[in-house]
Structures are given as structure tokens and as C-alpha cells.
Amino acid sequence: MAHPGTFFARLEARCTSIGSLLCVGIDPHEADIGGGGADAALAFGRRIMRATAPYAAAFKPNAAFFEALGPDGVAALHTLISEADGVPVVLDAKRGDIGSTSAAYARAAFDVAGAGAITLQPYLGWEAMAPFLTDRSKGCFVLCRTTNPGAERLQEAELASGSTVFEAIAAEAAAHAASDQIGLVAGGTAPEAMAKIRAVAPRSWLLVPGIGAQGGRADRAVAAGIRADGLGMLVSASRSIARADDPAAAARELRDIVETARRSARRHNAEQRSDAVLKGRGAEVAHALLEMGCVQFGGFTLKSGLHSPIYLDLRRLSGSAAAMKTVAAAYVDLLNPLQFDRVAALPYAGLPLATAACLQGGWPMIYPRKERKAHGRRQAIEGPFAMGDKAVIVDDLATRGTSVLEALPSLTSAGLTATDVVVLVDRASGAGRALSEAGLRLHSVVGLRDLLGHWRVTGAVAAEQIEEVEQFLDGGAH
């Protein structure tokens, strides 16, 4: 859900209220206005807007056609935007320059013309777009994969990372998506590319030109680009509506085609979401975590230093014998196939969970101390073991693997070996990769993304809270 007060929040409200994802382009080509100048362009725009307003989620006037008519044309553009009557307006201008120039372009588009959003090109980098984002109520659509035939040669060029240029742009936009002000232009003539963009930027709004006169099919575009919630894209058409004998009928027909495709996509997504419901032990663990108050939403700094909108306090599980039996059984399921001599529990949260698992599984347990004892035998490892024993490391959860990597030297210096790490929850924040680089395999009962999907489908957690965490994970929690 977009942040209240932003362009995309207003756009979502408009799409929902009229049941449409249609964006009507207003491009007063000379052929359309018969050489009549600014007055004819204004009349053309008014006619299209009045005819299509019941079906338009947004209007998209093209600045170039108005600017080509001189000062009167620019004035006509400003008048047209002012008469949009609450329909969000995207100014199709494709700006993007050095900071001071972009700041001037932003003032012209937002303060003078009154547009709600603007199209931008990313060639100069993200600092060139920053001036367009200073007003939180405004938005932008960044060119990502455009409709022109020559776009493929540059935008689909492969980078050293293996991704294409357009995928890199989408990823960068997704990383900046916390601003709730950045969308992407993804041409409807290239649905395969659009599907890749959606995969990289699952929550970004897409502006989809190329439908109709340029040959793009609305049903294919929607199938490739619709967001999981049935929103997240504007299907844009200009000439196919403006040049129709009845623009209102043409707009209504395209709106209906898009809506049919959207319903089909939502049914497909619903089937996929049903697969997200955890079964067996996973479902039991998901329920236990909520029941015991282990899941908290807000702003937290984790041990890894990561700033997170969700905190998992698995120590609370020890307050319920039933919850401990549930998680112990889940650990046992993971531990049974592994080869090890004893369980190495990590203090402190991992200790009671590993103890419960060992009681059910019948395994001996040791644990590395956080600090070596300064008295008695001055042990670094508590519990009996022999040189060469293989340990499986057990902890409560994995974020970046910090706790495991800190404990590993104590185990290896004592003559123990370890190749496997077992946790209840993998927070999907890079632990698997970090542990793999250290020669360790990570096993988890559930992943944080699995839990979020389960709680979304079952309605156990508010969708807004789930979306905030998913945005955090998608935006570089690794």
C-alpha cells in the first residue's frame, strides 16, 4: 500500500474507486488538430478527457506536442491539467539532467504545470532524479524497457553481473522504493521483459505504453505486469482511443479488456497464494510464534546491526510447554537426516530450544560459552565431547549468520568440526550466503518470507505490516 498523501496513494484510490487501470494518453498530433494551433490542441484534449473520464484511472498528456505550439501551447497544457477534475495526471516529458536543471524541470512540471507525476529517463543516474522527489506528494515513472524497436539493443544489453540494463534499472528503482514515489515505464510491446521487471520490482507501479496502435496486447501486458494485489500498473493508450469514432466506447472497451485480464491474473495469484499456506510443522510454528508474542512490528536494531521493521523474540517460546514441544518436534524433523555426534547450542536464545530438541531426539548437547570462564576449569565449551567429534550448530534464528560465525572458532579450536547449522527461522537477510562461504549449510524450519505469506493468506497479520516487511526484504535487507 502506498504511503498516504503520495501520488501513488491517490492513484490506487482512483483505480479502486472506478475499477480501472486505464491511462488515457493525450497526444495532439498535428494530424489530430488540423494545424489549428494551441486552441485546437486544448479543444482536442478536453474532448478526450470528457469522453474518457469515467474509465480513466489517469491522464497522460505528452508535453512535446503542446510545447511545439509555442507559449500558447504550453498554456493550453497547463489549462488541460488544471481541468483534470481529480483524475491523476502523469506528464509525459521524459526529463532527466544534472541536479540544477532537473530542479528547474521539477518546478516546471509540478509547481507551474500542476502535474502529479512525470516520466524521467535514468541515463544520468539517480541523483538527477532526486529533485523530482523532494515533494512527497509527487511521483515519477522512470524509463526502464521502452516500446521503440531500437530499445532492445541498449536496454537488453547484458551487464557483467549477468542482468540486463533494464533489469538493473528496475532493481535500482526497487531499492529506492521506500520513497513510495518511483514507478517504472515498461512497454506493453515486450511482455517478457515486463515479467522480468515485475520479478525484480514486485511492488513498483508500472506505466505500460504501447497498447493498441503500437501493437501491444493488453491481456498479455496485464498477465506479465500485474501486481499480486491486482494493482500496480497503468495500461496506457493514446491514438487507439483519440482516433476512434467514439473515444468513450474505445476507452470503455479497453478498460473492460484490462479488467478481464486483471480478474484472470488475480485468480491465478490466488491459486499461487493458496500454495503459500504452510502445512504441518511449519503451520504449527507460525501459529506458536504469534500466540506467544514472538513477532513484533515497528523499528528495531538487530544484533547484526541491521535496522528491521520486524523483530522475532524466540525466547518467549520457553514460556509455554506446548510451544516448546511444537518447535522441538520441528527441530527434530530437520536434525534426524543429518550426521553428527552432538548438538552445539548457541547461547542464549538457542539454548532452551536446542535442549527441548535434544530431549525429544535423544542427542547429547554442548554449548560454546560467550566468554571463557575465569575460574574452575576455564572452559570455552560446556558439556562432554571428544576431539574430532562432529557437531551440528543449533540456534533460534539466522539473520546474517553473525552468531554462528562468532561461535565457530571456539568449536574448531576445541577440536570439533561442524558442517551444518539448524535454526527455527531464516530471516532471509543473507545468512545462508555468509555461512556457505564459511563452509556451512543452513537448514531452517521456516523462512521469514514463508511466514509472511502464511500470515497474509490466513489473515493472521495485517496486510500493511506484511507489505512493510516484504519491502524491507526486497529493498536490500541482504
Descriptive keywords:
single chain; 478 residues; alpha/beta; Rossmann fold; 6-stranded mixed sheet; 18% strand; elongated
Structural description of this entry:
- This protein is of the alpha/beta class and 478 residues long.
- It has two domains: 268 residues, Alpha-Beta Barrel (TIM Barrel); 195 residues, 3-Layer(aba) Sandwich (Rossmann fold), CATH 3.40.50.2020.
- It is elongated and about 95 Å long.
- The two termini are 23 Å apart.
- The model has no long low-confidence stretch (mean pLDDT 89).
What is the β-strand count? 16
Fraction of residues in helix:
40-55%
In the CATH classification, which architecture of the largest domain applies? Answer: Alpha-Beta Barrel
Percentage of residues in DSSP E strands: 15-25%
Count of discrete alpha- or pi-helical segments spanning 4 or more residues: 19
Q: Stretches where pLDDT falls below 50 for ≥5 residues? A: none
Q: What oligomeric state do these chains adopt?
A: single chain
Query: Any idea of the CATH topology of the largest domain?
Result: TIM Barrel
Head-to-tail CA distance between termini: 23 Å
